[in-house]
Specification:
heterodimer; A: eight-stranded antiparallel sheet; 5 helices; 18 strands; 19% helix; disordered C terminus; B: DNA Polymerase III, Chain A, domain 2; 2 domains; nine-stranded antiparallel sheet; elongated; disordered N terminus
């Protein structure tokens, strides 16, 4: 690791020249500059940023970030890729340039007036962010535990393509009625209600033979609560025209719902199931049935047993 | 202070590496290692070269060694080289399997110079400073199975369309690999007499991720044999020879464990 504090301009220039050469030859170095600087950008748009103190970061993958002391996002940046960095002395100041050729030529020019800190350090990180609590996780949870939506409900395998797009989950309720479920991880609005209606309308007008086999839910938990005018949830819908079948139900499963969306659901004989994140989280964050252990657990290199936060997750690979 | 200087001088003078080897041997090593890591630190001594690497998820490890005898010529002192395996793989594509590759470490440019016929390829090396030296766990694995690579290849290939993991059983009478999906199932059961060797005092069972296992087993060349050391819900240790017995590769793979 190389660090220079309050360097003279000559030392700062030499440091940056060597750091940029290193950036080009060996991957895996992070370069940081804290300096009073001005920043010019020319590309699809153009910007200027007058003198001020900024943190400039060159990541090992070629990303450039210029951060001010405010907000989470950089004021100027270049995405990762084959960006060319160069540094030179110009009119007594150090000019740091980042050039990107594709898809458009773009240049970020940074004039360093007063360099306070320089840092160059090897940076290795092979881990990728593991995202939990996604909509996909919710589908998998409801598929395995349909009783979270409604007791007696059974989901069928695979995606149901309604010819207006695939519905998240489809199954059969206790009475033998076809049920289409659309799952949203945030509050449902008119567009989600419309989406569900498109699927249900198609299904009510089409045939609805049950294909595929049936997978029963096992656990004995019910955390979803029913809301809306279709309280019993078993009456089905009275269609808006003669062709519709009362046997196809549509459920929008989401944490909350807007008044307009609720009205739209009611008008079309659709239902809303409120999902309670706090209750679902304990299911979603539970370890997988067959968790991948690490060698650390057996005394080898790596993660220690019980380090659940970092336990490697191996989700089921989707086939076909 | 004086001794530090002397040691440094000694290290300087022995930091050399010059060797000739069949391209196929290098290809095999890179293939066996690059399934787990992108970069590796190669230890070079007068006796040969070796490397140890653990994959980024800390699920699997490779411990590979190649004796000086595996090379057609070999001259080396103590040295550590950082290799970008993806790049090295591309370089080796320039050579046919039967070709020989001459390698020489150039300290001043910090490059490995590789000669394949009249072609010279200078390969920039990676800084080894941040690369870990993995600690190999001391495992007590009761059962040992030696099985032909072909049988395994078939079972693994078949399992991949069903599931993302397989169950591996070692029994006093047989060895079995099985996989199942909600609808389908596959199993390969080899009775003791169809195995090259089976030493199992008790029945053991572990599950392994196919993402890992498949690539590891692919590294055993056809016609070769793989030795597996197994326990219950315990890592598997797999060993096979390289370079006509002048090299050896050991893999460790942590199991998947049912928590329900």
């Amino acid at each position: 690791m190389h660090i220079l504090r309050e360097p003279e301009p000559e030392a700062a220039l030499a440091f940056l020249q060597s750091a940029l050469a290193g950036l080009k030859e060996h991957r895996g170095r992070l370069v940081q500059v804290f300096a009073n600087c001005t920043v010019d950008y020319q590309g699809r748009a153009a910007s200027t940023l007058d003198q001020g103190e900024r943190l400039i970061m060159l990541k090992p993958d070629g990303t450039l970030l210029v951060h001010t002391g405010e907000k989470s996002k950089p004021v100027n940046w270049m995405p990762p890729g084959e960006n060319r960095f160069s540094v030179a002395e110009k009119d007594g100041r150090i000019e740091l340039t980042a050039l990107r050729r594709k898809p458009h030529e773009e240049v970020v020019r940074i004039f360093l007036h007063d360099v306070r800190l320089l840092l160059s350090v090897p940076m290795r990180d092979a881990q990728e962010l593991v995202l939990r609590r996604t909509e996909g996780d919710l589908h998998a949870l409801f598929y395995a535990h349909p009783e979270l939506i409604e007791p007696g409900l059974v989901f069928h395998r695979g995606e149901k393509d309604t010819r207006r797009g695939p519905v998240d989950l489809w199954g059969t309720d206790k009475e033998g009625h076809r049920v289409l479920v659309e799952v949203k991880r945030s509050k449902g609005g008119i567009s989600e209600a419309t989406q569900l209606w498109r699927y249900v309308e198609m299904e009510r007008n089409g045939r609805y033979a049950v294909e595929g086999d049936v997978m029963e839910g096992t656990a004995n938990v019910a955390v979803a609560t029913r809301s809306g005018k279709n309280g019993s949830g078993k009456t089905g819908a009275n269609g808006q025209n003669g062709k519709t079948s009362p046997k196809v139900r549509g459920i929008l499963a989401c944490p909350g719902i807007s008044d307009k969306a609720q009205k739209m659901l009611s008008d079309h004989g659709l239902e809303h199931v409120a999902i309670d994140w706090d209750d679902l989280l304990q299911h979603l964050d539970a370890p997988r049935a067959a968790g991948q252990a690490t060698l650390g657990r057996f005394g080898g290199d790596g993660l220690k047993d019980g380090d659940k936060e970092r336990t490697v997750r191996t989700g089921r690979r989707r086939k076909g | 202070m004086a001794s530090v200087v002397a040691n440094a001088a000694l290290k300087e003078s022995t930091a050399m590496f010059r060797a000739t080897v069949k391209a196929d041997v290098l290809k095999h090593i890179v293939e066996a290692t690059s399934t787990l890591v992108d970069e590796a630190k190669i230890h070079i001594t007068t006796d040969g070269v070796s490397l140890k690497a653990v994959d980024p998820a800390h699920v699997a490890m490779v411990d590979l060694s190649l004796g000086a005898k595996a090379f057609e010529s070999y001259e080396a002192g103590d040295l550590e080289l950082g290799l970008d395996l993806e790049k090295f793989k591309d370089v080796l594509k320039l050579a046919g399997s039967a070709d020989t590759v001459k390698m020489e470490y150039h300290k001043d440019s910090h490059r490995l110079v590789m000669r394949m016929g009249n072609l010279v390829r200078r390969v920039g090396l990676v800084d080894t400073a941040g690369m870990p030296d993995p600690k190999v766990p001391n495992l007590n694995l009761p059962n040992k199975v030696v099985v032909s690579a072909e049988e395994l290849h078939r079972a693994i290939k078949g399992s991949e369309s069903l599931s993302d993991h397989v169950t591996v059983i070692a029994d006093p009478e047989f060895f079995e690999i099985s996989a199942e999906s909600d609808l389908d199932a596959l199993n390969l059961r080899l009775p003791k007499e169809e195995l090259i060797e089976l030493e199992a005092a008790e029945r053991t069972k572990s599950m392994f991720s196919l993402d890992y296992l498949s690539n590891m087993i692919k590294a055993v060349r056809s016609g070769g044999a793989l030795t597996m050391h197994l326990g219950s819900d315990y890592p598997v240790k797999m060993e096979f020879d390289l370079a006509d017995g002048n090299g050896h590769c050991v893999y460790l793979l942590a199991p998947r464990i049912e928590t329900d």
